[in-house]
Amino acid sequence: MVEAVKKTYVSAIEKWKYRKKRDLNRSKGGNVLVFLLLAILGAFMALPIVYSIVQAFKPMEEIFIFPPRFTVQNPTGKNFKLIGQLAGSLWVPFSRYLFNSIFVSFTGTFGNVLISSMAAYPLAKHDFPGKKMLFRLVTISLLFTGGVIELPRYIVMAKLHIINTYWALILPTIASSMGLFLMKQFMEQLNNSLLEAARIDGMNEFQIFLKIVMPLVKPAWLTQIIFAFQGVWSMTGGNYIYKENLKLFPTALAQIQSGGIARAGVAAAASLVMLIPPVIMFLITQSSIMETMAHAGIKE
Questions:
Q1: How far apart are CA 203 and CA 186, in angstroms?
Q2: Are 266 and 257 in contact, with CB atoms under 8 Å apart?
Q3: Are residues 289 and 222 in contact, defined by beta-carbon separation less than 8 angstroms?
Q4: Phi, psi of 248 (to 5 degrees)
Q5: Which of 53, 61, 167, 221 sits at a 20 to 30 Å CA gap from 157?
Q6: Which is nearest to 163 in space by CA: 235, 101, 241?
Q7: What local confidence, expressed as pLDDT, does residue 74 receive?
Q8: From CA 120, how far away is CA 190, in angstroms rounded?
Q9: For residue 288, is pLDDT > 70?
C-alpha cells in the first residue's frame, strides 16, 4: 500500500513538472532579466554573511576603520586563537558548554518536529469536539513574543522543579506554536483518499502518520528543522540555568567577548563560530527542501 501511494505521488510530481516546464517558457531576454534580479537580491542578502566572515579575520587596527570595508588587507587568525586561550580560563571546560548546546539543540529540534507533527495530524485530518477552538488558541499564541510569556513560563518551570536542568531548555523548544501551525497547513493539503485507502488496507493511525503523512510533508518538517535548530542553537537559557556546568555555548562565547572594545576581534570571531552550525544544517537539508517545496500540496 505504501509503495502504491508513493508511485501515485511520484506520478503527480512528474505531471506537475511537465506542466510547469511548459508554462514557464519565456524569452531569452526575460530569462536574463530574472537572473540579474535574483543575482542582485542574492548578493544583497549575502552581504551580512560576507561582512561577518571578513570581520573575524581583521586585525584590531582594521576593525574600526570608517566607512566599514568588505575586504581585509592583513588577514589574521589571532582572533580565533584568542578564543581558545580565553576558553581555557573559564570555570568549566569549554567542551562542556559545546556539549550542552549540541545536546539541547538536537534533542529540542527532534522533539519540536515530532510533537508538532503529531499534534498537527489530528487537527488537520480528523474531526473532534473543540478542534476549531484549539486551533484558534494556537493561532492566537503566535501573536505573543517570547518576552511576554517569559514570567509565566518561569513560574511554570519553578512549580515543575526543572529550573537548572536540561528540561528547562528543551521543553519550551518542543512546545512550538509556529511548528504546529506549519505542519497543519501542509497536512491539510494531503489527499484524504490516500489516508482512507490506507485505513481500508488495515493500517492504524500511527502507521498512516509515520509511513504516509510524514514522507508527504517532508518540505514542512525539513523547513521546521532549520528554524528550530537555529532558534535553539542561539539560545542562552540564562533565565533558567544558573549552574555553570549546564550553561550553553553562546553563554561561554558571551563571557569570552565581554572585555569591551579590546576584544572586538574576539567578538567578531565568536559571531562567525555561532554562524557556522546553522549554515551547515541548512546546507545539509536545503537540497531536499528546494526539491520538495515546489511539489508540496499536489493532489491527484
A1: 22
A2: yes
A3: yes
A4: -100, 170
A5: 221
A6: 241
A7: 80
A8: 13
A9: no
Alpha-carbon torsion 195, 198, 200, 206, what sign? negative
Whether this model's pTM surpasses 0.85: no
pLDDT in tens, 265-284: 777 787 887 888 888 877 77
Looking at residue 73, its pLDDT comes to 79
Residue 158: other Cβ atoms inside 10 A = 12
Radius of gyration of the CA atoms of the chain, in A: 24
- Mean per-residue pLDDT for 218-245? 83
Residue 68: cis peptide before it, omega within 30 degrees of 0: no
- Residue 292: count other Cβ atoms within 10 Å of its Cβ: 18
pLDDT of residue 255: 75
* 39-70 pLDDT per residue, tens: 888 888 888 888 888 888 888 777 777 777 77
138 closest CA partner among 125, 120, 151, 152: 120
State CA 86 to chain mean position distance: 30
Shortest CA distance to 178 belongs to which of 111, 112, 104, 131?
112
136-146 pLDDT, tens digit per residue, is 888 888 887 77
Contacts of the segment 241-248: beta carbons below 8 A, 24+ positions apart:
241/163, 241/164, 241/168, 241/169, 242/163, 242/164, 243/164, 244/91, 244/92, 245/92, 245/96, 246/100, 246/164, 246/165, 246/166, 247/97, 247/100, 248/97, 248/100, 248/101, 248/104, 248/169
Give the span between the Cα atoms of 167 and 165, in whole angstroms.
Answer: 5
Q: Which three cell numbers stand for residue 137?
A: 488558541
Distance CA 201, CA 222 (A): 29
* Joined grid coordinates for residue 46: 549575502
Q: What is the identity of the amino acid at 259?
A: G
